[in-house]
Recover the amino acids of this structure.
């Protein structure tokens, strides 16, 4: 009934850390992830710290760039370009969302594609959409890995993705489309959300509203992926009311750990592929 992200993440991280160790014995260096955060939203600071801890445990290095909320687009782009040019950095993650006055898209595009281990650039998005095997957006990539690990058939199924953010909803929809799902993307302007969700075989909740998805919206036997991660460790799905789902991810222990595992895996792959490897 439960799709355990914790278990899947353990396997992915285990393999990534073995590859990291090989890389280190070959080059004398560790794969290195740079994390960039703008402003001091406490939740974002927590996620970034979590990512750094996981890196360390798996034998990766991480460097952190913390910028004030008043940072301009130009300043942020310049910092990210510098990381793109820094041979000691193999992967770059810019924490979404950035403060509203910043052009987030320009900042993402300053990540050179071969360091885009969080899969946020236009290049990576296009590759995902065409089903090419490059860096995927970590959370959506983790979601598809979870579905595969639990033998969920995707082709021909109706997948309803709620949310269309550049790091989650939109790329999740493209990955599911590339796997031949029939995809509906819902967002804040969607009319009749409950009725649409009721027709879903696979539901991906990616909004950031605690318990937005009610039990009555879930078709019996549907597969429910709750990517929401809200204050108090609650997801976007009313978990207690979803006992009739076929499979469901818990929060915590579902999508979150898988996301970080994919991030580490892609950082190791980035290091391995870079010219000096
Ligand atoms: N576990 C993990 O690894 C990750 C978890 N998260 C979590 O997932 C959630 C979403 O994150 P993120 O994508 O970054 O959030 P954003 O705030 O960037 O995007 C939220 C999306 O939800 C849509 N939305 C808002 N309200 C409604 C509504 N009432 N009905 C339908 N759609 C709505 C918005 O629509 P519109 O576009 O119209 O504004 C938007 O597309 C958060 O809880 C976050 O913490 C995020 C990333 C990774
Ligand atoms: N560019 C970008 N990429 C992201 O991937 C990204 C981002 N921005 N902005 C913020 C969100 C949030 N996010 C989480 C990752 C892991 C957990 C996670 O592992 N949670 C644990 C709980 C951990 C705990 O609280 O102890 C779990 O669900 O089991 C949660 C949230 C990634 N995000």
């Amino acid at each position: 009934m439960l799709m355990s992200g914790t278990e899947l993440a353990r396997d992915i991280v285990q393999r990534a850390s073995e590859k990291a160790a090989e890389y280190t014995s070959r080059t004398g260096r560790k794969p290195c992830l740079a994390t960039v955060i703008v402003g001091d939203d406490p939740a974002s600071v927590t996620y970034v710290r979590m990512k750094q801890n996981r890196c360390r445990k798996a034998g990766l290095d991480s460097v952190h760039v913390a910028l004030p909320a008043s940072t301009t687009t130009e300043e942020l782009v310049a910092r990210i370009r510098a990381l793109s040019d820094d041979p000691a950095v193999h992967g770059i993650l810019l924490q979404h969302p950035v403060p509203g006055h910043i052009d987030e898209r320009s900042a993402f595009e300053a990540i050179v594609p071969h360091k885009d281990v969080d899969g946020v650039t236009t290049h990576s998005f296009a590759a995902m959409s065409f089903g090419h095997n490059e860096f995927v957006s970590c959370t959506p990539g983790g979601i598809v890995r979870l579905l595969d690990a639990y033998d969920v058939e995707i082709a021909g199924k109706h997948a309803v993705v709620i949310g269309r953010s550049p790091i989650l909803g939109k790329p999740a929809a493209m990955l599911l489309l590339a796997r031949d799902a029939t995809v509906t993307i819902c967002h804040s302007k969607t009319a009749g959300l409950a009725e649409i969700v009721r027709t879903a075989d696979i539901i991906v909740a990616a909004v950031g509203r605690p318990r937005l998805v009610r039990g009555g919206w879930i078709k019996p036997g549907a597969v429910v992926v709750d990517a929401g991660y809200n204050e108090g460790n609650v997801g976007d799905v009313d978990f207690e009311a979803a006992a009739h789902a076929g499979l469901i991810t818990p929060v915590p222990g579902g999508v979150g750990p898988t996301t970080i595992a994919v991030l580490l895996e892609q950082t190791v792959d980035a290091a391995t592929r870079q010219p000096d490897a």
In short: The pocket of 5,10-Methenyltetrahydrofolate (ligand 2) is lined by residues 47, 50, 93-96, 118, 120, 138-139, 167, 229, 233, 251-253, 256-257, 259-260 (CB under 6 Å). The first strand starts at residue 32 and ends at 38. The domain at 138-255 is CATH 3.40.50.720 (Rossmann fold).
